[in-house]
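re: ur question from earlier - yeah i can do the single chain one, its not a big deal. heres the input i used so u can compare w yours
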Amino acid sequence: MTATGPAPRPAGPTGPPGGPGIRATTLRRAAVGLGIGAAGAVYLWNTNPHEPGHLLPGCPLRWATGLLCPLCGGTRLAYDLLHADVVAAFHDNAALLVLGVPAAAYAVGRWLITGLRGRYYRLRLSGRAGAAVLGVAMVWMLARNLVG
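and the output i got, formated as tokens:
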């Protein structure tokens, strides 16, 4: 016995076909993310993470081992970028500024544009790309802990 319904539509290059529902979901998620980011930026604008006595989370790896992880300095970097101090942001975490910020901007921009076009987008890293990201993170962690 065969099915008599319409044939399923093939998936596009970025996922199954979508439409207005995906656009609305993308806009809703973008608005929520923008709102949370704006609230965090307002708090961070008035809270200097370079000084003690604030309610910002610390790095659990640094707390437990005293070592800097690849993301250590990210909050200070964000604070410095909010205050347009790129040199201090570079000093806080150079790899995150040079590699992480552009990669995150690309991924979010690609997700937003694809979603507004009514398609799904999921960032997928190949095995090589994942190994490259992990390798760069490990080299950065070793370099910043050994050099000081």
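The first helix runs from residue 20 to 45. not sure if urs matches, ping me
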